[in-house]
């Protein structure tokens, strides 16, 4: 997982942050990092939220890769988030090898429920996370939507 900047920033994509994110020193450094992460094992780029969408658009190395641009998990409109993820997940699944058989049931109902959540594997945590760091996720739990 890579953020637009070294660490995630709440409300990051205001006009000033967009300008800084697109500035040559930041953009070039980030592109070099993303290029190093682009290995033969990379199956898809999943860019969560406006900041990540912009980063992928600015990264020349994204050319030829499957790129999904779903809403960020912290998006506060549950119905909009579910609709967006119900659109993206079927498109993402053919590009990502699953460790277990995927549940293809679309998200339904209003708020997310505990049954919709999965543990975050430590290997999926931010590359700058200190060792021993416990993943902290959106909405106060230790789990993310499946």
Can you walk me through this structure?
- By secondary structure, the chain is mostly helical.
- It has a domain at 15-107.
- 32% of the residues lie in helices and 7% in strands.
- The chain has 4 helices and 4 strands, in the order ααβαβαββ.
- It has helices at residues 15-22, 24-37, 49-58, 78-92, and strands at 45-46, 67-68, 117-119, 143-145.
- The strands form 2 sheets. It has a two-stranded parallel ribbon.
- Helix 3 links the parallel strand 1 (45-46) and strand 2 (67-68).
- The two termini are 16 Å apart.
- Residues 136-146 have low confidence and may be disordered.
Write the SSE topology.
Layout lengths: L14 H8 L1 H14 L7 E2 L2 H10 L8 E2 L9 H15 L24 E3 L23 E3 L1
Parallel strand pairs: 1-2
Antiparallel strand pairs: 3-4
Short descriptors:
two-stranded parallel ribbon; 4 strands; mainly alpha; single chain; 146 residues; disordered C terminus; globular
Oligomeric description of these chains: single chain
Structural class: mainly alpha
Q: What is the ordering of alpha helices and beta strands?
A: HHEHEHEE
Rg computed from alpha carbons, rounded to a whole number of angstroms: 16 Å
Tell me about the largest β-sheet: 2 strands, parallel
